[in-house]
């Protein structure tokens, strides 16, 4: 039974890594579509989100199957429950990447981000890409030192999110109402993306360190 | 064992109803704080969110305990997994009510919503209150006819969300950049709140009708 369970867990872990790699690709491409006004790329990100959704469903079914067949208890049970939560968080990160791509597509052939906010979004997209990349690495290596890098990346996103408010509220802001709206929502999507990355990082850290009491308290809304 | 399991399930169901009632109270009070500029009320909503968070943790622990002690399979297992998902969604609805209250508090003694958007937010808050109330009723009665009312309430919110874009993009809009940002984010919070209500409604419907295949596919991002 133990070998089957361990094989199932490995399978579930591989599924999470696969989801995370797709999220990483989605946010990176969404950022390029946004900043360079690439319509086809935006389209591709939007179309590929269903693949992340499909993986989530597959992974959830696998988790439910393991719970039913193996009836794990204690730590093993919490590992499976945590996997369910992480897959739901990764799915949501995929949605947020899709939302960024949708804004890019909606403004095409114009750029959604005006010149005055471009640098901020170049940086915020870079930080989001880092969060996603480190999340994939953390999921595949279980090296909890990566969690600190994810938290640091999220801090950068939070600061840049604040910068977008400062920019749109500045007397120098010459953006249209549409640009103010787009910048506000885009920054919010990235900010949530970072929060979710931190949520995954904390859950994995709890899995590795075994501090499951804390895991239960891991906020999705950090 | 069966009686213990049924008693545990009832306990979990009661916990979900309690969470939902708190969410209902939070969104209603947050709307009043927002529209009438009531600082103390905003403060109260923000302070009381931790109670929803505490209930979520308690409920999750109870679900994990039931899984460990009872090792449910088939439908029973899916009921517990669905309860875990609903508690996480209700917790998020509580966060969104808190975000509305935070905007109200941040602008005090001014009103965050300018006159030109007031009517829309009166209506959107009413629709969100309806979604929350029907969600509590659905959780306590399992009367799936209520799910249609929740979907209809969410449709109203989505339409009003679109109205806020039309308003802020209209040449008649005289709001400041701060007001444009606030209206954009507030409408987004309400829109997500409605989506989450629909997600709960669908999950409960699947529980009652037994269509668990569909449940797994219930989108959080409807």
Which secondary structure elements does this structure contain, and how are they paired or packed?
2 copies of one chain form a homodimer.
Chain A: H1 2-36, H2 39-70, H3 74-107, H4 115-141, H5 145-169, H6 177-209, H7 212-216
Short description:
Chain A is mainly α and 222 residues long.
Q: What can you see in these coordinates?
A:
Two copies of one chain form a homodimer. Chain A has 222 residues and is an all-alpha fold. Chain A has a single domain, classed as Methane Monooxygenase Hydroxylase, Chain G, domain 1, CATH 1.20.58.220. Helices cover 86% and strands 0% of the residues of chain A. Chain A is built from seven helices and no strands. In chain A, helix 1 packs antiparallel against helix 4, helix 2 packs antiparallel against helix 3 and helix 5 packs antiparallel against helix 6. The first copy, chain A, is elongated and about 65 Å long. The termini of chain A are far apart. In chain A, 51% of the residues are buried. The model of chain A has no long low-confidence stretch (mean pLDDT 94). Chains A and B meet through helix 2, helix 3, helix 5 and helix 6 of A and helix 2, helix 3, helix 5 and helix 6 of B. Chains A, B: It comes from Isoptericola sediminis. Chains A, B: This is Phosphate-specific transport system accessory protein PhoU. Chains A, B: Keywords: Cytoplasm, Phosphate transport, Transport.
């Amino acid at each position: 039974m133990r070998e089957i369970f361990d094989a199932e867990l490995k399978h579930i872990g591989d599924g999470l890594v696969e989801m995370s790699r797709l999220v990483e690709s989605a946010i990176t491409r969404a950022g390029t579509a946004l900043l360079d006004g690439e319509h086809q790329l935006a389209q591709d990100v939007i179309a590929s989100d269903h693949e992340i959704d499909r993986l989530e469903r597959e992974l959830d079914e696998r988790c439910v199957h393991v719970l039913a067949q193996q009836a794990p208890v204690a730590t093993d049970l919490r590992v499976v429950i945590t996997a369910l939560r992480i897959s739901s968080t990764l799915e949501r990160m995929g949605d947020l990447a899709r939302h960024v791509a949708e804004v890019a597509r909606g403004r095409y052939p114009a750029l959604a981000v005006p010149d005055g906010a471009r640098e901020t979004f170049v940086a915020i997209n870079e930080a989001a890409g880092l969060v996603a990349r480190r999340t994939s690495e953390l999921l595949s290596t279980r090296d909890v030192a990566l969690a600190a890098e994810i938290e640091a990346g999220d801090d950068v996103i939070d600061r840049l999110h604040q910068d977008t408010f400062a920019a749109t509220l500045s007397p120098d802001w010459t953006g249209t109402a549409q640009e103010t709206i787009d910048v506000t929502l885009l920054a919010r999507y990235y900010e949530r993306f970072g929060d979710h990355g931190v949520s995954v990082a904390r859950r994995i850290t709890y899995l590795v360190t075994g501090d499951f009491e804390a895991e239960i308290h891991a906020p999705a809304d950090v």
